[in-house]
Amino acid sequence: MSKAFLAAVLQDSLGCTEVAAKKAASALLSGIIGELQREGGP
Known about the structure:
Layout (H helix, E strand, L loop, with lengths): L2 H12 L3 H22 L3
Helix pairs in contact: 1-2
C-alpha cells in the first residue's frame, strides 16, 4: 500500500484537497511506523 494510494482514498473519503490528503497520508504512515517501532513490530 503506497502513500499515494492512501492519499487518494483520504481525498475521496474526506473530499479534501490533494495537498491535504498527502499531508494526512504522510502523518498516518509516520504514526503507524513509529508505533510499530515502539512495539517492536516488523
